[in-house]
TrEMBL record:
Naturally occurring in which organism (per UniProt): Flavobacterium alkalisoli
UniProt keyword Oxidoreductase, yes or no: yes
Protein name: thioredoxin-dependent peroxiredoxin
CDD domains: PRX_like2
Any one of the GO CC terms: cytoplasm
Amino acid sequence: MNTGKKTYKENLQDLRDDLAAMLPKETLSIFDKDAENLQQNHKSIVKLQAGDKAPDFSLVNATGNMITLSELLEKGKVVLTFYRGSWCPYCNLQLAYYQKYLDQIHDLGAELVAISPQTPDESLNIKEKNELNFEVLSDNGNIVARKFTTVFRNADEPLNTMNELGLDFNSHYSDDSRELPIPAVFVIEKDLTVSFAKSIGGDYRNRVEVSEIINHLKYR
């Protein structure tokens, strides 16, 4: 996915145009209504605020290796982003968009890490599809996600619509809980202190602009 150097919002408009051309209007409206309902029903998203200590964790990456937060922090800061899955066009857009700025993030002394509840195979899928050069970790059961962001159960209507489109939601995960994290971004300092915590809200179409992350890393 070529996101160029546009903002996420600009890339989002391009994606919306593509989806409108690909999907029937009624189908797209089902997903849009789901996003709007999540926005309305979830007001307080992040579980950790700036100044809180992040819990250490170990999760498997896309190639089956165990990655530990505290070990990553020995090298520098960590930018954590929680996403839904490789089937989600907005997640693909966000991660491909962040990849464009990975060198800048590295130059500012930080590593980027993406976390979802999907299987390592699906983590590898999204990593290869978007040519991601950062760690993509599998958080089976959203054990880590619950400590950072809100987790919810995917509703019947969007799930059934996905199945009608030929997308097997459950095949992406190791359980049948249908639970997903609300997208959120955190910057973790070397001593495990959270210095940045943000979610745009339950509406998963919207994501944190990479410029906010970079500005925080610059001036922290």
